[in-house]
Every structure is written in C-alpha cells, then in structure tokens.
Amino acid sequence: MEYLERGDEARELARLEEMLGLLGTPSLLALRVQKGLHEEQSARREPRDQVTHPATVKIIEDENRIKNAEVRPRLREVGDPALDGDPEARGERAAGGERRLVAIEQRHRPAERGGEHAVAPAARGDVEHPHPGANPVSVPAEPGAGLGERRAGGHGHGRSSRRAGLDRLSGAPADLLVIGGGITGAGVARDAAMRGLRTVLIERGDLAAGTSSRSSRLVHGGLRYLEQRRLGLVFEALRERRTLQRIAPHLVRPLEFVFPLHEDDRLPPWKLAAGLVAYDLLAQFRNVGRPRILGKRRLLEAEPMLRDRGLAGGASYYDAQCDDARLVVATARSAIDHGALVSTYTAVRALALRDGRVSGAEVEDVRTGARGIVEAGVVVNATGPWGDAVRRLEDPAAAPLLRPTKGTHVVVERERIGHRHAITFLSPLDGRVMFVLPWGDLSYIGTTDTDYAGSADDVRATESDIVYLLRSVNARFPGARLALDDVRATWAGLRPLLAGGGSESSVSREHAILEGPKGMITVAGGKLTTYRSMAAEIVDRAAARLGRGRTRPATDRDPLPGGEASDLETFRERGHGLGLPAATVTHILSHYGTESAGIFNLGTNDRAMLEPLHPAHPAVQGEVVHAARRELAQTVADVLVRRVHLFYETRDHGVRCAPRVAALLGREHGWSAERIAEEVAAYVGFVGRESAAPA
Ligand SMILES: Cc1cc2nc3c(=O)[nH]c(=O)nc-3n(C[C@H](O)[C@H](O)[C@H](O)COP(=O)(O)OP(=O)(O)OC[C@H]3O[C@@H](n4cnc5c(N)ncnc54)[C@H](O)[C@@H]3O)c2cc1C
C-alpha cells in the first residue's frame, strides 16, 4: 500500500474523492465557499495590495481587539496605541497579575520514535572516518570520470561528499546540468543521478543559500487546498510527507499542532473540524495521530497561555517539521553518492550554445574568478526566485514567469510564549493563517506575505514585518508581550510563486515546467514538501529529450544520508557511553541520524572533537569537521547558519565560536593563517549586516 504505482494512486485518489463526495459534506462545501484558510496567502489570486501588512494593514480594533497585541510599554514604541485597561493585554490573564510560565515538554524527537526499519549497518557505529585530509571515497581524480557511476561502496559507509572543482566539471560532457542548489536543484540532481544520467549541479553560493533555508520548515499537506477542493494536491503533498518521513526520519519529524479559534476569527470551529476530517482521510489515516476536536476547556488544558476570552474552540492535528537546509544538503549528498558532481560557490554566468540550442553553461568559481564551460545534453534552470534572471540568459526578452512574495520569520525564546505544541492560528490583524513553531528552547513565528520588487540577493525582515508577527502572537498569547528586543533572529525568503498565464506546458498549482526557445528547461514555483515528485517530473522531461527511458528510480525508498534507520537508540547509548550530556546527544541524533556515528568516531579518535563549540549550544567541534568533509561546507557561515544553526540559536549568532570554526575548516581545507582570519572577519561582517536593526 505504501508503494503505490502511479495508476494505483490515481484510483486511490478517485476512491477518496468519491468518499468525500458521498459524505456530501456540508463541511467541504462550506470549506469551498468559505473565504478560507489561506486566501490572503495565495499570491496568485488576489491583488497585491490586499496582502500587504502591517504598515498598510487596516487594523480593525473593535473586531479583533488588537489593542491587546501590544508590546511592553518599557520597550521600544512600535507605533501602536497605548495599552488599555485590559489585564489580559498586560499578560495578567490570571488574577494576581503574575505572568505564568508553562513547562515545555520536548516532544517528537526523532530518536524517540519507534523503529520501523531494521537497524542499518551504520547503526552499529560503523561509519568510517578518514583521518584529516584523507578522502577515501571522493570523486575520482580524472576529470569527469565519476559522472553517472554509482561509487563502489558509496552507500552507508564512510561517505565523503566533496565539492567538485572546475577541472572536473569541464572534463567530460554531462547529460544534465542543473543550475541552482536549493531543494529543487538538489532533488533533480538526485533523481537524475539515480537514473544513471551523468549529472552536474552548479550552485553559486552554499547549498540551500536561497529560499530553501528560509522556509517555515514544514512538510505538510496544505490545508488551504481543501477549500478549493484540490484534493489531488493535498493527497500528493500528504503522500510526500510520508515519503520524506521514511527516507529522512531524522530530519522530517511529526509534530502535533493545536489550532485555536476565537469568536472574532473568520473560520468557525465546525468548518475547521470538517476540513481536518478530510485532511486525515486524504492522508489515508496514516498519520502519527488522528485530528481531535477541542472545546474551550480542552484547548486551555493543552495550551494554558492562550487567550481565553472569546475562545470558541478548535482542534489538534499532525503535520511534520523539517530542517530545511539539512534536507537540501542530504539530498545533494545523495546525488553525489549516486555519481553526480556538485559544485558550490560556482555561478552560471552565461549559457553555451551549439547550433542555436543551449548546450551547457559558462561557469565561474566565485572564490577564485576562474571560468570554464560545462557541456550538457540538457540544462535545467532550478534557481527559484532567480529563475527569471537565468531565463534571460537564454532569452533577454523573456516575460517574467515569477511574482515573488516575501515571507519573514522571527525567533524568540519559547518560554516567552509558553506554548506546548505547534500553534496554527489566524492573525487577528488580517485573518491570515500563521504558525508558532517550537524549535528546541526557541520558537519561530511566521510568516508574512508581502509583494516584493527588490533584489532577490538582499531579502531582509523589515521592522514592519517583525511588528506584524509579534502583534499577531501577542493578541493570542497575551502573556507573551513580545517586543522588538525579544527577537533573537529573523529570516526572510522569497516564494518563487508563478505569475500565472504564460506558455508553460505543464502547470500545477505550485509549479510550472517550461522549455525556453533554445531548449533550456526552467522550473518555477514548487515547495519543499513536494520537491521529490516535482523533480521526477522534470527529469522525465529531460530523459525524454536525451532519448532515455522514463523508468523512475526509487527516490521514495532510498534513504538520504543519515536516514537509514529511525530507531536511533543504539546511537543514543553510544553518545551517553562517551560521556556526552543528554542535550548534546539529542542534538547530534536529530541532525545526523545514523551518521551520528561519524561524529562519535571523530570524538573517539580525538576527544577535542566532542568539546562544545559554544558555551550556550549543544553543538560539538566534530560537527565542523563533519560539515567540511561530508557536507560541502566551505565557509564559517555555511557551518553556523545552514549546518548547525548557531546563527539562529545563540544570542551572539555564533560569533564567539567563529575563530574555532574557521580554524577547524582551515585544517580541513588547507587554509593559511591569513585566510582563516579573513573567513572569521567575513562571518562577523555577515552577522553585522544580517542583525542590523531592520529598516
Ligand atoms: C517564507 C517561506 C516559507 C515557506 N514555507 C514552506 C514550508 O513550510 N513548506 C514547504 O513545503 N515549502 C515552503 N516554502 C516554499 C519553499 O521554501 C520553496 O518553494 C523552495 O525552497 C524553493 O526551492 P528552490 O530550490 O526552487 O529555490 P532556492 O532554494 O531559492 O534555490 C535556488 C538556488 O539557485 C541559486 N542560483 C541563483 N542563480 C544562480 C546562478 N546564476 N548560478 C548558480 N546558482 C544560482 C541560488 O543561490 C539558490 O541557492 C516557503 C517559502 C517561503 C519563502
């Protein structure tokens, strides 16, 4: 049942649609006409000025009691009316005026879930580790020799994923050249390499440097498609959710959500309940838990810090949370493992043409300025928000395909909000669906959705983005009283949404695959959750052009690096046996899955590898070495932002440990003392720019 063929799936979906039709659901009909769950979030349907916020948002104070969503008076004024006399607004919802804090249970750690797979060999702690500088399973030395060949013994043991240099790239022609190392490009490269295509992936920065490390980190079915009766889309996303939990159980973790509704929300609880029944049905009841309808009392038991005044009811349900950047890295590494060459910090500057058709690209190593040509049978443009810019390399007159909108998240200390579960709620400011999501001791709040016309290279949270998010949460968790200086970190990304229209030959709600006048294939749109099935579609197209068969590889069963087993108890015991604190062991297991053994092995050889990187974070020094040897990390930011996340998770954004990280990277990459100092300065500069007071 889990591995349905495509024909079977279509029949299964038809059966579910019929069931939902037979239920005659007032529910679904209601959902359809309901001015629904995420309407304002769809950048395609509404005029742009209806989705802007909060500088322009019309605050309907009486209806939504926005006065309660205030910042603490002692803190920086953010242009809101003064607090009124409402004790809840001051965080004094209980008599006595003390702001209560709620103990937060750490749930859903992947290592705590039961094992559905047999323990892989790596689970015995057998992951080999080369000595510093050694690279036993690196890409073959002769240019291009590794293309399209699965490396002997490549799976499971001693994997070492190195960045390919220009010499290798411009050796033998590739079948497929993928531009862009976000989740889309990594997924395409993996699928293509698994089909035996000679594949090259070019990324101008780090893997996941674009939108793919700036998402809401959810792998979800997309409740909002239910109201449009786009059951096929929800069905697909829910299937992909299951698939990702199977191939990367350490990175994609089930998460329980509570969805409270207040009387002034635009969605009544019964419609939410009906929608969740349909959601569960489309997931074929294969979720960690069933949705539950919650009355006011049960809601407050589940989430005591919720605003109780006006609380109408709600529900709880399950979706999944994912480490987006690490998912990209794992996917790219799997591509390498199947023979692809992946080159980060290498930008496509121009397209190569033969007989008027795109036959490759001119690429530049952005660190050295060296240039070369990569020849390929088919070129795929998977550059997300940069998609139109790369299309113009082929056709300078190409009309825009994308209409990007910006989404911002803010990170705060979790105990300030006091939520126990992930929270879905409707912003009382404008009715948009928002999330408060747990991330260890922190929470992130997202997201905004505003039109964006600036450069895709410089997307930042603005003060109005932040204020909008904080005020929305303060309205529903009045004890939080979040203010600007409570924000630990922010991130903002561009949704590569389709502008609509155009001549795309394959369009779904979320992505389009089209071929340019000189043959480059561009993919636009998409989302993290469905990247794998989207990649299969793209590679089908490329394979047809190359005259290859359409047999799809087992991308849904072949585990990503670290995902070989979901029961990680053996690893936990090993970590404890090494005398590591429980928090450190949990951190390592949730980042590396079965590859935790690699980190532990480093520590066995050199105890310093198990020393903390930073006094306020569980990460250890061996992770830097692992990131350099196996995860294509080239810079301090690659490590601290996208591999171990200290940028988001420590107050100083990891600056304190930047010299140590640079020294460890320097040892791996052979840097001089001068280069190490430059890398530290570059990171400090990056943090300064990113954490500068938002405009
Ligand atoms: C705020 C927000 C929240 C989201 N939340 C979710 C969610 O919870 N769940 C979900 O499923 N989806 C979510 N999404 C959608 C999802 O994140 C994106 O659809 C996805 O990450 C896009 O990936 P991509 O690979 O297409 O683009 P990107 O990740 O942007 O990758 C494109 C890459 O191309 C590179 N590039 C550009 N030009 C060149 C060049 N000339 N040469 C070489 N490389 C180049 C860039 O450096 C970049 O790394 C969210 C999106 C946003 C903005």
Counting DSSP E segments of at least 2 residues, the number of strands comes to: 21
Number of helices: 21
- By CATH, the architecture of the largest domain is named 3-Layer(bba) Sandwich
- Average pLDDT: 81
CATH-level-4 superfamily name of the largest domain: FAD/NAD(P)-binding domain
The end-to-end distance, rounded to whole angstroms, is 52 Å
Largest sheet: 10 strands, mixed
Bound ligands = flavin-adenine dinucleotide
Number of domains in the coordinates?
4
Output the radius of gyration.
Answer: 25 Å
Which fold name corresponds to the CATH topology of the largest domain?
FAD/NAD(P)-binding domain
Shape: globular
Helix-strand makeup class = alpha+beta
CATH class of the largest domain: Alpha Beta
Unreliable spans: 1-5, 24-158, 501-509
Folded structure, characterized:
The protein is α+β, with helices and mostly antiparallel strands and 695 residues long. The chain folds into 4 domains: 1-41 and 218-322, no CATH class; 174-212 and 326-399 and 509-546, FAD/NAD(P)-binding domain, CATH 3.50.50.60; 402-498, D-Amino Acid Oxidase, subunit A, domain 2 (D-Amino Acid Oxidase, Chain A, domain 2, 2-Layer Sandwich); 569-690, Orthogonal Bundle (Helicase, Ruva Protein, domain 3). The strands form 3 sheets. Strands 3, 4, 5, 6, 11, 12, 13, 14, 15 and 16 form a 10-stranded mixed beta sheet that branches. Strands 1, 2, 7, 8, 9, 10, 17, 18 and 19 form a 9-stranded mixed beta sheet that branches. Helix 5 (183-194) runs parallel beside helix 9. Residues 1-5, 24-158 and 501-509 have low confidence and may be disordered. The structure holds flavin-adenine dinucleotide. The site of flavin-adenine dinucleotide has 38 residues, from helix 5, strand 8 and strand 16.
